[in-house]
Each structure stands twice: as structure tokens, then as C-alpha cells.
Amino acid sequence: MGSFGTNISSTTSFTLTGFPEMEGLQPWLAALLLLLYAISILGNILILFIIKEEQSLHQPMYYFLSLLSVNDLGVSFSTLPTVLAALCFHAPETAFDACLTQMFFIHFFSWTESGILLAMSFDRYVAIRNPLSYSSVLTDIRVAHMSISITIRSFCMVFPLPFLLKRLPFCKANVLTHSYCLHPDLIRLPCGDTTINSMYGLFIVISAFGVDSVLILLSYVLILRSVLAIASQKERLKTLNTCVSHICAVLIFYLPMVSVSMVHRFGKYAPEYVHKFMSLIYLFVPPMLNPIIYSIKTKEIRKRLYKMFLKPKL
Length: 314
Known about the structure:
The protein is mostly helical. The chain has one domain (about 25-300): Rhodopsin 7-helix transmembrane proteins (Rhopdopsin 7-helix transmembrane proteins, Up-down Bundle), CATH 1.20.1070.10. The protein contains twelve helices and three strands; from the N terminus they run βααβααααβαααααα. It has helices spanning about 25-55, 60-90, 95-130, 135, 140-160, 160-165, 185, 195-230, 235-240, 245-265, 270-295, 300-310; strands at about 15, 95, 175. Strands 2-1-3 form a three-stranded mixed sheet. Helix 1 packs antiparallel against helix 2 (about 60-90) and helix 11 packs across helix 12. The longest helix is centred in the middle third of the chain and has 34 residues, at about 95-130. It is globular, with a radius of gyration of 22 Å. The N and C termini lie far apart (about 75 Å). About 35% of the residues are buried.
């Protein structure tokens, strides 16, 4: 075996697995995943189109929603090639560098989504706490700076991961648990010491997801305090209703993520398909549900959808 710092690159590819324990159901599973992809891609493209075309939606809240939709499209397109190859075309092999590239983009978009949800919580806090100064606080330039900062933060956090993996020797059977490449899955395979990889992975999880979730929770504590200061109960409910879409987006992102983390750490004896399904929920459900939630809860988007699909043509 070569030295620790040298990658034994008989490893030129990884084998991605679908659900071999459910072989008879794989066609149905593939059809379900394709349906989820279609809903996610079409739904998010539709949200972007409506926000672009509807002048009344050219405001900070919907700029952040546009960014969320672009990010969700990124999540979908990051996993689509290998999921299609493994489940639909029975071609589970993926090149080493292609796998690392896919891993980079999957985690990049995950961390970016966390940052976008934090920015959206700040948007809701400003809108409720200081409605009169909302447009002066969240100017177009400030929204652009926040968006760029979120993107740069995610890039800087994820950028070292492929290089930390490439320095390690791979000499085990290079079979991955999922039909896409994830960092927790990849660091099980090297023969060398993966302590640095594990510690860095834990650090960025805590510094991104951990800090973001705490700040989102804090923003809602402050929002709730502002809402309780409103005298009219009807106005309180109306104000809280403006946060429902964002609260749902936060829950459908963080709950599956926490569940995946708990299963990986404490569910070692759970069947393999449990781990796979939890990861599928984490990567597939938020991009699919976000456009549905915002379409249902946002009056302007609902009206535009009605005009596009339901209004009778004369």
C-alpha cells in the first residue's frame, strides 16, 4: 500500500447502489423519483417565471424565494444524472472525479439553502418589526450582497471536501450506499486516516446548519414578541400568516436533515434501506414541496397561476 498522502488510484470509479433489497419494486421507485423530479423542476421554473413576470412580486421576500427556487433546481440537477443512470438505465458506475464533483454540488446547494432560509427569516423579522422601514432596510443592493455572501460562504465551506478526499488511499470495495455521492458515504471507503475529514465535516455542519438554525429560531422568538405586542387578535393572526410559508420551508428542510444525521449516528443497526429513504427524503422532498407551499400560501402567485391555467380562454 502506498503512503498515506498518496491516493492508490486503482480507484477510478465508484459503484452507486439503488435499492437491491427491493429489486421487484425498482421500476415503481424509479417512476416515483422521476415524478418527484418533474414536480420539482417544473414547480421551481414556474415560480421563477411568475416572479419575473409579476411586477408586484419584485420585492425582497420574492427575490429570496427566487434564490431558493434556483437553489432547489441545483439540488435536483445535481442528483438527477446518477439517479437516472443507476435506477433507470442500470449503469451504476461513476468516475472518481465525477463523483467528487457531484458530492461538491450536492453539499454546496444544501448549505446554500440553509443560508437562504436564514436570510428569509431576517426578511420576515424586518417586515414585521419595522414595516415602515422595510424597503429602506432591505434594498435591492443589500439583498444582492446577502445573496452573494450566502453563495461565497457555501463555496468556501464545501471547496476543501474533494481535496481532503483525494489525498487519501482508496483500497476497499468502492461501493456507495446511495445512487448519488455524499461526503458521509465517501469517507467510509478510504484505507487511510479520515479523522481530518470527519472533524472538518462536523465543523462545517455545526458552523452552518447549527448556527443558521439557532439564528432562525432566534428570529422567530423576536417575531413572536413583536406579534404579541399587536393589540388586535385578527391583526396578530394576519401577521403570523405571512410567516407560514417560510416556517413550512424551514421544517421540511431541517427535519429530514436532522433525521438523516440521527439515523447515521444512532441507527447503525437499522436496515440499509432506512438510511437510503431518509437521504432521499432530505434531497427530494424540499425542492418538490417549496414551490407547492409558496404557490398555495402566496396570493399573488395563486392569482397568476389561475390566470395561466384555470381562466377560460375567450
